[in-house]
Amino acid sequence: xxxxxxxxxxxxxxxxxxxxxxxxxxxxxxxxxxxxxxxxxxxxxxxxxxxxxxxxxxxxxxxxxxxxxxxxxxxxxxxxxxxxxxxxxxxxxxxxxxxxxxxxxxxxxxxxxxxxxxxxxxxxxxxxxxxxxxxxxxxxxxxxxxxxxxxxxxxxxxxxxxxxxxxxxxxxxxxxxxxxxxxxxxxxxxxxxxxxxxxxxxxxxxxxxxxxxxxxxxxxxxxxxxxxxxxxxxxxxxxxxxxxxxxxxxxxxxxxxxxxxxxxxxxxxxxxxxxxxxxxxxxxxxxxxxxxxxxxxxxxxxxxxxxxxxxxxxxxxxxxxxxxxxxxxxxxxxxx
Length: 336
Prior knowledge:
By secondary structure, the protein is α+β, with helices and mostly antiparallel strands. It folds into 3 domains: about 10-70, Roll (Ubiquitin-like (UB roll)); about 75-160, no CATH class; about 175-330, no CATH class. About 45% of the residues lie in helices and about 15% in strands. The chain has helices at about 55-70, 75-85, 90-95, 105-110, 115-125, 130-140, 145-150, 165-170, 185-200, 205-225, 245-250, 285-300, 305-310, 315-320, and strands spanning about 10, 15, 20-30, 30-45, 50, 235, 240, 255-265, 270-275. Strands 3-4-5 form a 3-stranded antiparallel β-sheet, with helices on one face. β3 (about 20-30) and β4 form a beta hairpin. α5 (about 115-125) packs across α6 and α10 packs across α12. The radius of gyration is 24 Å and the shape is globular.
C-alpha cells in the first residue's frame, strides 16, 4: 500500500494524514469472549485512533466469523444454500418469514442476525415441516404468489404440533421458583393473554408488550402469589423483557394474534394485532381483574412513557443489566 492510498482524515489534525497500524486483542463481543486480534489505524502525527474502512471491514469479518463459531449463529452461506435448495429469492424468503424486505439481503452480505432470527433460520433449514408451516401461512395471507407456493416441493408430511411451539416450550420451561413466580410456563395462557391484550390496546408494540406482560405477571404475584404465564423476565435497556429476548420467537406464533412489521431506515417496528379468537375462560376472576387493571393503566400511554414508568420500579433499578428479575420485587410495584 503506497503513501497516497494510506492517507485518511484525522479529526484531531483536521486533515488527511498517513497512519500506522497497531494490533490489539478484542476480548469480548455481546457478552461472548472472542479474543481476536484486530488491526487499528493510528495517526502518524498525533497518535489518534482513526477509522480506516479497509481495516474495519476486515476486523468486522473476523469478529462476526468468530462470534458465529462460538454461538452457533447461522452463516450467510447456510442461508444461500437453503434458498438455492428451494429455488427462492431473497424477497420470497422474507415474505415467507414476514420480515423486513432487506433482512435476508443484509444477513447474506455478512450482517449478524439476532438470536431469534438465527434460531428461526436454523429451524427452517433443519425442519422442513416448520418451513412448510411458514410457506402455508405466507400463501394464506397473500404474502407470496400462487406461483411461488406451487413451486415449493416438500418431502415430509406436516407435523400436527408446531416445531416453533416445541422450541418455545423448550426455551421457556424452567424449574418452578421465584424467578417465574412459582408457576410452570404455560404457552396456551401466554398466547391467549397476548390475543386479549392486543384486542384492548390499539398501539401495542413489541417493546410495550413486554411491559404489559411483566406488570401483569408481577401484579398477579403481588396479590395472588403466583404469576399468570410462568414467564421469566430480565432487566434490559428499555425496561423488563422476557428472558433472552424470546419474545421474538413468541411473536412468530399465529394462532391468537399476528404481527405487523414496518421497516424504517434504521430498524423494524413490530405492532401486534389480535385475531379476536382468544379464550379468557382459562383465567380466574381475580386474574382477569389484574389483567384489566394493567391494561387500563397503560392503554393510553405510548411505548416511551411505559418504558419510563418501568424504569422507576425498584425491580429495574436494583437488578443488573441482563439479569433475571426476582418476583420478590412484585411487592414493591408502584403503578399497579
